[in-house]
Amino acid sequence: MQSEALTPEEYLAELPEDRKGAMLKLRNAIKDNLPKGFEEVMGYGMLGYVVPHSIYPNGYHCNPKLPLPFINLASQKNFIAIYHMGIYSNKNLLDWFVIEYPKHVKTKIDMGKSCLRFKKVDDIPFEFIGELAAKMTVEVWISTYEKALKQ
Known about the structure:
6 helices, single chain, alpha+beta
């Protein structure tokens, strides 16, 4: 479900009531913990947290006009999704996440390569997602991204 919203505020305003509270809480957990330099935008019809062109002028290799994506947050049809490129590209971060996750959530992890899916808003570990958001600085993300591109 891609949104046509142009701003994060528009995106949040159009969410169904049963998702709005959880999405606002997730947004705050991410924004309150992201290291300095990331910027909130709309990207791919979702809330996005990116490295802006002012820090990384090369932009995203798939489309250099776009800033370098890091985290996206979306209310999909059957779940809330967090797309975290750091988990996808950094094995140490992925390992940490997988080990720590059961300490915060009783349900089994529902995860793809970079996608975390939460079918029930009551199962979202907001503080833990904030911890995850804090784990990678802009500089570390750029370095990780460039190393992955070269491989």
